[in-house]
Task: structure prediction
Amino acid sequence: MTTTEIAIGDLTDPRILRLLEDHLADMHAESPPESVHALDVSALQDAAVTFWALSDGDAVLGCVALKQLDESHGELKSMRTDAAARGRGLGRLLLDHVLAEARARGYRRVSLETGTQDFFAPARTLYASAGFAETGPFADYVLDPYSVFMTLDLDA
Result:
């Protein structure tokens, strides 16, 4: 019997590296280079970023990261579910985990950037179902026809 678990991810684990490589490859396949805001492994190792992996037994099925922008604002990063594991509700598990962590840290809001293309429609639907609303750019982002910016007010 296996158990689904979300824990701090080891950014040297080949299974996690494959998942992140797939993530970056999809981002570059869907968006022009200047519109790809996905973090590579070195950026995920920044002290402001916490990275988690979702596993089921020996299989790594997803990942997510939370970047601290300031003491009350976090950014959702590197949300990914392995293509073979999609449709099982794992994205919701990862999102719920990050939002619980953001609340525990005392963040007042969590923001994210995702794509406008059809490929990103399931992600946008998931985020909207959790209460995220479209907003303008935040942090260092600028308006971009390939980006949608969303924020969840945790005080609401």
